[in-house]
Amino acid sequence: MRFVGCGDAFGSGGRLQACILLKSASGNLLLDCGASSLIGMKRLGIDPNEIGAVVISHLHGDHFGGLPFLILDGQFSRRELPLAIAGPPGTRARVLAAMEVFFPGSSTVMGRFPVEFIELEPMAPTPVGAAVAAAFEVEHASGAPAFALRLALAGSIVAYSGDTSWTPSLLEATLGADLFICEAYFAEKQVPFHLAYRTLIEHAPELGCRRVILTHMTEQMLAQSGVIFERAEDGLDITV
């Protein structure tokens, strides 16, 4: 697994937006695809044309805004591998609308390789590329349902909070997971629809996962000392 981008929407700490590469012998998958994702992949030497699927947690630009660039890069670079894009209800419409805003006419010329849109439903495990994805509705206003995600891939289970305030559905998503990638926006400050590190610590005994890595951190959280969980960095490569 590689953190292509682990930052918030505003580039705190100079970090790129949310994009996590899950690698397996049966296929590669992106967990979120923020607007800076293509830059991050090319910087790290990751071939975008080898990404078979993308799973989106919610429809904010720092989590899905890289999809128009990923699709169009595939068109221009003669990609042949099909691309599956899974996300909340409304994902297809939002991606096509974004393509039209960024590059008018682009949404009607997606013909060089197949693009399949899969709309996830809560608590319904769904095959997506080489993985099986399960969605858990969380608390984050984005004009569509927002999900925490649980991905089963190559014998491992990765849970991901996306962006959310604390909600019991995170316990369902993390139960038995090998890794929980979790937002820690501020250390103490409570912001609507986001999770503070202190709140996560309060609920840590309830988590059913083996390992926690923090992501989506503000400058204030990045400067916080005494943090007991691992913190992601752009380019971090780990084995799950």
Quick one: overall form? globular
Total domain units: 1
CATH topology: the name is Metallo-beta-lactamase, Chain A
N- and C-termini, Cα separation: 7 Å
Task: Indicate the percent of residues in helices.
Answer: 10-25%
Q: Helix tally?
A: 7
Write down the CATH class.
Answer: Alpha Beta
Topology order in helix (H) and strand (E) letters: EEEHEHHEHEEEEEHEHEHE
CATH superfamily, please? Ribonuclease Z/Hydroxyacylglutathione hydrolase-like
Description:
With 240 residues, the protein is an alpha/beta fold. It has a single domain (2-231), classed as Metallo-beta-lactamase, Chain A (4-Layer Sandwich). 21% of the residues lie in helices and 26% in strands. It has seven helices and 13 strands. The chain has helices at 37-43, 61-64, 67-76, 91-102, 169-174, 197-203, 219-222; strands spanning 2-5, 19-22, 28-33, 51-55, 83-87, 115-119, 126-128, 131-137, 147-153, 156-160, 179-183, 212-215, 230-231. The chain has a seven-stranded mixed beta sheet. A six-stranded mixed beta sheet has the order 1-2-3-4-5-6. A hairpin with a 2-residue loop joins strand 7 (126-128) and strand 8 (131-137). It is globular and about 50 Å long. 48% of the residues are buried.
